[in-house]
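## tool: complex_structure
## caller: assistant
## args:
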Amino acid sequence: MDRLLNVTTAVSAILLLMVLFSVRRERIRVEYSVSWLAMAFIMLVLSRAKPLLNTVRELMGLPDSPLALFLLAGGSALIMLFRFSMVVSHLRDDNVALAQRVAMLEYRLRSQENHEG
Amino acid sequence: MIRPHGEDRLLVIVPALNEEAAIAGVVREIQEFVPDTPVLVIDDCSSDSTVMLARAAGADVLPLPHHLGLGGCVQAGYKLAYELGFRYVIRVDGDGQHKPSDIPRILERLKSSGAEMVIGSRFIDDNGSRTGAVRSLGIKFFRAVLRPILGRTVHDPTSGFVGVNRRALDVFSRSFPLEYPEIEALVVLQRRRFRFEEVSCHFRPRTTGRSSITPAKSLYYIVHVLLGVFIIVLRYESRFHRGNGG
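## result:
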């Protein structure tokens, strides 16, 4: 069990660092990094603080601490994926509307140029 | 630039993606049967000579900056038509399946019935139009699904040979399904208490290109459209119950 929790600590730390570096290099926007940072931080704390993890395990009614930890991480990841799907859907709608607007403006511009030329 | 003219202020739009084999013929045929009517080809980022051939045949072309899919492509045409003041828009597919000789009958029905949408239908009577087995099964399935929702039978719910008037243009230029738009557009119109009519049309067999709905994609298509219809019904029911039926 300890080895599993150590692996979780390492993975959480790597995730935390990856997100921080990505934010610093502007590869991910701050608003989309917050949920990843929060998840990595919570995983890191829970994997190091056994009494806290046991409390969480009891609250969830599970027999195993690592199972509680992974269920928590899995559930959070699902919620984040759903949130990002909503963001992508919104961006797609905006992108379609923008592409249509660009096409119409280019069409009008080209027609005007042809008319004048 | 295309301008509405004449009493009808009609525009024929042709959504096209890699239709170089058929597009010039489609444009010329439209001009033959509805002369003096502007033809707008909306090019969904073709990689072949569709744009050049459409222009050479006498159509105006609205090239999209990147691929939007059929719904986004058709909606771009509706938006432009609405902004330029057209009263009627008839959509003809760029693959040559729709016969432009049917356009005057669709326009006449739009004008005489006052319906917001007129569908060119293959199946009102046995006019010899044929479609593939999978598609035929899909059409029968959606006919059965739509019957209680629309309150009447729609014989050819997947037909893309469609005419709309300015009221429908107003709605569709603001909101239009991006993928597989035909069925969902019908439900949107019905929920807004708009009317549709069907006119018997003969479709030619596809001679070039391929349908976007392959047998492998059929299941995805069915689930996608069913979900879309379900969401539209829910959305409009909740508006209705909030006392905002429009």
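## assistant note: The helical segments of chain A are 2-24, 30-48, 50-60, 65-116. The mean pLDDT of chain A is 92. Handing back to user.
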